[in-house]
Specification:
Layout (H helix, E strand, L loop, with lengths): L3 E4 L3 H13 L5 E4 L6 E2 L18 E3 L1 H8 L2 E3 L6 E3 L4 E3 L4 E3 L2 E4 L3 E3 L12 E2 L4 H11 L4 E5 L3 H12 L3 E6 L11 H13 L3 E4 L3 E7 L2 E6 L4 E4 L1 E4 L3 E3 L2 H5 L8 E3 L10 E3 L4 E3 L7 H15 L13 E3 L6 E4 L8 E7 L2 E7 L5 E8 L5 H4 L9
Parallel strand pairs: 1-2, 1-9, 2-5, 9-21, 11-18, 12-13, 12-18, 13-14, 20-22
Antiparallel strand pairs: 3-4, 6-7, 7-8, 10-19, 15-16, 16-17, 23-24, 24-27, 25-26, 26-27
């Protein structure tokens, strides 16, 4: 019988491989990856510098060790050119591979501003371990770093880099940090906390130009402000990797469309993680990926499982301002109420009949997340 094939060796791909092997001891299992196939904690990339953790120390297992753990094969530095669902084949550079069932754990790509004048080498993004190695090498001997984007990754790197001794500037179109997750009061609370650690904010403005100026980089903002910095870290967002699936005729929306069983529009192909859109929801966080991996593995092994997600708070890794947020659904009617004291801030979102539908907790109030989360409705019941 042809193997179960997983494309992608990130947390999503390897989680499926391990969960599947627990459920099926005999089936052939093959992981294809374009990188080195090392297993590491991607969330740790935005907090390693201030802790003195080197890129090499972030690696938990090599590709060979992962192959032994999943009792399968891990093929590294492999580029998948196309999928043929009709024949259940994967087209590589010089061969084709047949599969019985296929899992797409392709991840997402960083969004980039259009750059000219050779500025690409001074504007970096960090989306995997290889990117992080380049970033760590690039900032050696530098003093100032400007971050484009005040979302989750931008704020976490701002905290980490400032703690590591760099002068950090953050630029974002929004009026406050984490504008897609936090209500304004909590966003301002986070901004003030990181500002006290030396982070300089440039909010409510975009970037019109990035130019080389000797050994420095000049950033021109829409509001007329100009910044001189040593290096730029772009953290303006992610785009699910959908091109391979789209070319194969699979349904695509924001991500690869899957149902609650994590099946794509082809019943023999599953997708999860940053590349997938689960029943209309894009959930690029560790907790939902862990749950999705178990669902996929169960269905690969012949079971019948569906995603059933409880409320899953997002922990923002900003030690200068501990933050845990569980935002309400985008269309949820209701309002925020906020309490603040010297130790922290709590914002609760209540819907009809006063039912709790979301929260944002900071400082000492972050410890209340385990108590509040069970009161929230399940995403998929």
């Amino acid at each position: 019988m042809d193997p179960v094939v997983i494309i992608g060796s990130g947390y999503a791909g390897y989680s499926v491989a391990r969960e599947f092997r627990r459920r099926n001891k005999e089936a052939q299992l093959l992981v294809l990856t374009a990188d080195e196939g090392q297993f590491y904690s991607k969330p740790s990339l935005s907090e390693a510098l201030s802790q003195g953790i080197t890129p090499e120390a972030l690696v938990n297992k090599t590709a060979q060790q992962m192959a032994a753990q999943i009792k399968g094969e891990v093929r590294t530095a492999v580029r998948v050119q196309a999928l043929d669902p009709a024949t259940r084949q994967i087209v590589l550079d010089r061969e084709t591979i047949a599969y019985s069932q296929l899992v797409l754990a392709l991840g997402a790509d960083p969004l980039h501003l259009p750059l000219t004048n050779g500025t690409q080498r001074r504007v970096l993004s960090v989306n995997d371990l290889a990117d992080y190695r380049r970033f760590v090498a690039a900032i050696a001997g530098k003093k100032s770093i400007t971050i484009l984007g005040a979302g989750l990754i931008g704020c976490e790197f701002a905290n980490d880099l400032s703690q590591a001794g760099y002068q950090v500037d953050v630029i974002d179109l929004a009026a406050h940090p984490l504008s897609r997750l936090l209500p304004p009061e909590n966003g301002h609370y986070l901004r003030n906390a990181l500002q006290q650690r030396g982070v300089r904010w440039h909010l409510g403005t975009g970037v019109t130009a990035i130019e080389l100026q000797g050994h420095s980089v000049l950033i021109r903002c829409e509001n007329g402000e100009e910044l001189i910095t040593d290096l730029v870290l772009s953290a303006i967002g992610l785009k699910p990797r959908t091109a391979l699936a789209q070319a194969a005729g699979l349904a695509i929306h924001r991500g690869i469309v899957v149902d609650r069983q994590l099946r794509t529009s082809d019943p023999h192909i599953f997708a999860l993680g940053d590349c997938a859109e689960v029943a209309g929801q894009w959930l690029p966080y560790i907790a939902p990926i862990s749950l999705a991996a178990k669902v996929v593995a169960t269905n690969l092994a012949g079971g019948e499982a569906s995603a059933c997600y409880p409320a899953m708070p997002v922990i923002v890794k900003t030690p200068a301002c501990p933050t845990v947020v569980c935002p309400p659904a985008q269309e949820e009617p209701g309002e925020w109420t906020t309490e603040c004291d010297t130790d922290g801030m709590q914002s609760l979102f209540r819907g009809g009949a006063g039912a709790l539908r979301g929260f944002a907790l900071q400082g000492s109030r972050a410890a209340q997340a385990p108590t509040l989360a069970p009161q929230l409705p399940m995403l998929f019941g």
